[in-house]
Amino acid sequence: MTLFRLFLIAALGVITVYTGVVIANHGLTLFPAFFGDMGAMGWAGQFNLDFMFMLALSALWTAWRNGFSAGGLGLAVVAFFGGMPFLCIYLLYLLSRTGGDMRRVLLGDARA
Fold first, then answer.
1. Is 63 exposed, middle or buried (0-12, 13-18, 19+ CB in 10 A)?
2. 1, pLDDT greater than 90
3. What are the CA-CA distances from residue 65 to residues 16, 36, 92, 112 (Å)?
4. How far apart are CA 20 and CA 91, in angstroms?
5. Whole-prediction pTM
6. Exposure pattern of 5-29 as b/e (b: 16+ CB <10 Å)?
7. Is 104 in contact with 112 (CB distance < 8 Å)?
8. Are 92 and 8 in contact (CB under 8 A)?
9. Spatial CB neighbours of 81, under 8 Å, sequence gap ≥ 6
């Protein structure tokens, strides 16, 4: 479990720094670039479409894990738009709260 936590912390650090550099160099123009690549029907657009479905899966899991409650739906929106930074922080929080019990992390307390 320690290696998983270290991976989450490293991934969060790398994506945060990388995002900061991209914002500094290109500004907050994510959506036009993201959807523009998809509209161009090239490999960058294929990757973005694939990534968008991964974000949707993360959001769906987050909502399901929380019983599709109002809070769970709110977290799902944050998961979709927050991407890997959200997922790293959320999983680190869940690991801490559950004592590393992966059944409780993945399924939630009610299902585990």
1. buried
2. no
3. 26, 33, 15, 10
4. 22
5. 0.92
6. eeebeeebeeeeeeeeeeeeeeeee
7. yes
8. yes
9. 55
